[in-house]
Amino acid sequence: GESVGLHLPTLSVQEGDNSIINCAYSNSASDYFIWYKQESGKGPQFIIDIRSNMDKRQGQRVTVLLNKTVKHLSLQIAATQPGDSAVYFCAEPYSGGGADGLTFGKGTHLIIQP
Amino acid sequence: GAGVSQSPRYKVAKRGQDVALRCDPISGHVSLFWYQQALGQGPEFLTYFQNEAQLDKSGLPSDRFFAERPEGSVSTLKIQRTQQEDSAVYLCASSGNRNNSPLHFGNGTRLTVT
Of the candidates B22, B20, B18, B41, which has an alpha carbon nearest to the alpha carbon of residue B32? Predict the structure, then answer.
């Protein structure tokens, strides 16, 4: 079936380095993608989103890249900090959840090494 | 409050017991969602409300699961005759009134069925 998934379950980076988290999606009809961050014991927190008519969008220390040709999404975090340790999920619209319902991938656990 | 509030934070139930999980969405948010998150997995869609109307309940795993939002604000997810496979974190999210509004999640209720 159509789904959103991630390439790596765990990513370990040195503090201060840049992190790149990848996501592959299979629903070519999706027109909106979102990245969420989930810290231990908390609910997912919105980071950044991108519409399918864009290739790149930048936020504060984060950049999302969308490659529709290969159906690939990535989240880049600049100068990774200890507070960035979390599980990161990409998500796309869920067909049954009205305008805002989402389908989530399995997540990538980002670990920051001191 | 400023965010989505869920209670209780933790719930331990013996197999066969009924449980009720509460969600207070962000004031004024029309859309409300329930998700189930198993350990090490991404959130899975359960059901969706627009005001008091339950527009999609296709994600509810069995007829033991029931959700309501009688006045279009607070919502309750009820699980009857709990089973061990119901153990998970139950997340509630709400969203605003424009298309592709980000979901705002609560911190969830961790349900453990023994």
Answer: B22
Which residues 21-40 on chain A approach chain B with CB closer than 8 angstroms? Answer: 32, 34
Token digits of residue A21: 């988290």
Lowest mean pLDDT among A7-16, A29-38, A93-102, B42-51: A93-102
Q: Which amino acid, A5? A: G
Is A44 near chain B, with CB under 8 Å? yes
pLDDT digits (tens, 9 = 90+) for A57-92: 999 999 999 999 999 999 999 999 999 999 999 999
Residue type, A53: N
Task: Enumerate the residues of chain A whose CB falls inside 8 A of the CB of residue B104.
Answer: 46
Cross-chain residue pair B105–A44, CB shorter than 8 Å: yes
Q: Identify the weakest region by mean pLDDT among A3-17, A23-37, A43-57.
A: A3-17
CA-based nearest residue to A23, from A73, A91, A86, A77: A73
With tokens 């005759």, the residue in question is: B81
Question: Rounded to an integer, what distance in angstroms lies between the CA atom of residue A92 and that of residue B42?
Answer: 12
Residues contacting residue B98 through CB under 8 Å, at least 6 positions apart: none
Q: How many CB pairs under 8 A join A and B?
A: 71
Looking at beta carbons, which residues of chain B come within 8 Å of A57?
none
Q: What does the block give as tokens for B22?
A: 């509460």
- For tokens 């927190």, name the residue: A45
